[in-house]
């Protein structure tokens, strides 16, 4: 029975724990624009990896301390979700964004891209943070893709609904249920259809060829 | 899609389910997931003991994420051995890996690790009792009879003797299975007494 009085012993690590500790971290590099580091040095590339739980936990703990320091005795401010979410985001991005200069990949992206979370808060705009957050989500998706399917018919059905309902809550609800990758592919499919149906037809000399047949994905 | 993990699994017959939760030192279920960098290592999930369950609830219940990781860190086996010796070690997993492993642990627990914190214990007790009555578990009944001590007006259930394990290393499933076996024994004895009484009254 664990009495809690046993002396501290060195933590035993299983084969799995050792393998996890020694595996290289996978980071994805992205070119960015408008980011400047210390001394106004332009940051051209950022590498982003998926945080491990320990990094995530320490980011969240640090976020609470930042909020507490920022809001002081103001109870209402300290309970504001937006302030906490922004603090969490900054802390998480500080852990996840890694320097991607020459030699950094070989060194395992040892250094963070930005000097500190405080620096990020003081020098990056909310738009810049949003860009980094999107890239972080993109990396998470790449590392652990969720299977999704798209068909020509499903795209055209949704397009028809949106064309009939316009910019309404219904259309927005239908679209927000789709993943970013699905919407990306749907846009490409619609663009190709637009080219075939409208642009190519309008270029012809009035010859009544009719609209090209919409291809069924089963053909 | 949501599954009710509180109920006993419908795809395991009660007579097999009681044998599963009685396994010593604890039931284990293999899982398909492989961890990057350790693809050759087979993973499985074991049931946790009552003591481990209470430790997790006492320490990590304030946060759902921490609770899930704590269950994972206690129950995950790598090639049959404890995968992580602490919560801190399990924190080396990436968010994506934890997102994949936590449901595997939940699914495995739902099949072999009933707990008052997660399970519909009334449903589990009914199911396991049905399993205890099945003829294929008659050997377990015989063994349980030898582990019930009567004396000084008291009945003592010797789970430690039945499982040959210290009491605090048992799981809730172990306790549930033994109680069900004892209930079957008790009902059989009551029936026997009633029949004897009837025979005597007929003479």
Notes on the structure:
The complex is a heterodimer of chains A (219) and B (203). Chain A is mainly α. Chain A is 54% helix and 10% strand. Chain A has a three-stranded antiparallel beta sheet with strand order 1-2-3. In chain A, strand 1 and strand 2 form a beta hairpin. The longest helix of chain B is centred in the C-terminal third of the chain and has 31 residues, at 172-202. Chain B has nine helices and six strands. Helices cover 54% and strands 10% of the residues of chain B. Chain B has 203 residues and is an alpha+beta fold. Chain B has helices spanning 14-21, 50-60, 64-75, 87-90, 95-112, 121-133, 138-145, 159-163, 172-202, and strands at 28-31, 43-46, 76-78, 81-82, 148-151, 154-157. The interface between A and B is medium-sized, with 26 and 31 residues.
Secondary-structure content class of chain B: alpha+beta
What is the approximate shape of chain A? extended
What's the oligomerization state?
Answer: heterodimer
- Tell me roughly what share of residues is in helical segments of chain A: 40-55%
Biggest pleated-sheet summary of chain A: 3 strands, antiparallel
Q: Tell me the number of helical segments of chain A per DSSP (H or I, 4 or more residues long).
A: 9
Largest sheet properties of chain B:
4 strands, antiparallel
Task: Note the gap between the termini of chain A.
Answer: 67 Å
Instruction: Kindly state the number of beta strands of chain B.
Output: 6
Tell me what portion of residues of chain A adopts beta-strand conformation. 5-15%
- Compressed to H and E, one letter per element, the order of chain B equals HEEHHEEHHHHEEHH
Distance between the termini of chain B: 64 Å
Largest interface: A-B, 26 and 31 residues
Quick check: average pLDDT of chain B?
A: 93
* SSE topology string of chain A: HEEHHHEHHHHH
What is the helix fraction of residues of chain B, given as a range? 40-55%
Average predicted local confidence, pLDDT of chain A: 80
Major β-sheet strand ordering of chain A: 1-2-3
**Radius of gyration over C-alpha positions of chain B, nearest whole angstrom:** 20 Å
The chain-level structural class of chain A is mainly alpha
Shape of chain B: elongated
